[in-house]
Design a protein that fits this description.
Blueprint (H helix, E strand, L loop, with lengths): L1 H16 L5 H25 L5 H30 L7 E7 L7 H13 L5 E7 L15 H13 L9 E4 L3 E4 L3 H14 L8 E5 L3 E6 L8 E16 L7 E16 L5 E6 L9 E9 L5 E7 L5
Parallel strand pairs: 1-2
Antiparallel strand pairs: 1-3, 3-4, 5-6, 6-9, 7-8, 7-10, 10-11
Helix pairs in contact: 1-3, 2-3
């Protein structure tokens, strides 16, 4: 009975503070409860002769309770730790290049994250920059626009230079693109900090040549832009020269076109031209709202499209 009182006292304290005990502490308490329970059972066996089956059943019930309740408590806390807050999201922007020998590990990392975390609200966008094209290989997916976007991030994040591979998460956190620990930590932090509450697109309609959409009124978004990224799901390149010469490179979520729309407070219709080669079966469209002053991404949406 004493151990039961102790356990429920701890649970009550958790409810009052809103905090969970560390996993290590839970294990210690679990072992403590188990040991106390068995000690109670052993002491009763030694000092007392059971006079009725009813008394034995009561003691067994109490012992089982001491074993089961802490285990359930620990399992519940573990589940809460892995839960993603509603509306949390992470926009992962990778700046990469086929002409950079350090970039393939970053491309492989985002492909791994895309596969392992496919059920999580992670939006991966791979931008191929053009400033390494002079090293002997021209990246067919590269655009000066993406290099300029990376330079804009350098201004927002107060960086002295740009580099590849680089990852930026939700426009606020950056690190070397091949750093798996940093990427997983940044996405988990993004899930906790962000609320994907600002609506992005509605009434989306694809035609053979364009994308028509309606964005709703967005309170507080006067200094923001709506960005529409047309993304090719995958591609493979046989690099014949340059730093990666002789290697076959695999890419995922390649941004082939990025369109910026200035947001009006009252919302409104827009039409965006489809990029050359667009295929609804092998491409996707990601829309996100970004603050023009800070670079912070406030909302994101993946559009499952079909050309009509």
């Amino acid at each position: 009975m004493l151990t039961t009182i102790l356990f429920f006292g701890l649970a009550h304290q958790e409810n009052k503070t809103g905090k969970h005990l560390p996993i290590r502490s839970q294990k210690i308490f679990l072992l403590l409860f188990v040991r106390i329970g068995f000690c109670l059972l052993l002491s009763v066996k030694i000092t007392t002769t059971f006079t009725s089956m009813k008394a034995f059943k009561i003691l067994m019930f109490c012992t089982l309770a001491l074993l089961i309740i802490p285990a359930v408590y620990a399992f519940k806390n573990k589940a809460n730790q892995n839960k993603i807050p509603q509306n949390g999201f992470a926009v992962v922007e990778l700046f990469t290049s086929e002409g950079c020998s350090s970039c393939p590990p970053a491309d492989e990392l985002v492909a791994k994250i895309l596969k392992e975390d496919s059920t999580k609200p992670i939006y991966i966008l791979s931008y191929h920059v053009d400033y390494w094209n002079h090293l002997g290989w021209k990246d067919e997916f590269s655009k000066a626009q993406y290099s300029d976007r990376q330079r804009r991030y350098a201004q927002w994040l107060k960086l002295s230079q740009i580099y590849t591979p680089q990852i930026v998460v939700n426009g606020t956190t950056e690190f070397v693109g091949s750093n798996e620990q940093a990427l997983r930590g940044a996405t988990q932090m993004a899930f906790k900090k962000t609320n994907n509450l600002m609506p992005v697109l509605s009434n989306v309609h694809f035609t053979a040549t364009g994308l028509s959409l309606q964005y709703p009124a967005m309170a507080g978004a006067a200094n923001c832009s709506l960005l529409i990224a047309f993304v090719q799901n995958s591609a493979q390149t046989n690099v014949k020269s340059g730093e990666n010469g002789g290697h076959i490179l695999n890419h995922v979520n390649i941004v082939r076109s990025l369109n910026t729309i200035s947001i009006r407070n009252q919302g409104g219709p827009q039409t965006v031209e489809l990029p050359a080669g667009f295929n609804a079966k092998t491409w996707q469209v990601v829309a996100f709202v970004q603050n023009n002053s800070t670079g912070q991404i406030l909302s994101a949406q993946n559009i499952v499209s079909s050309v009509v």
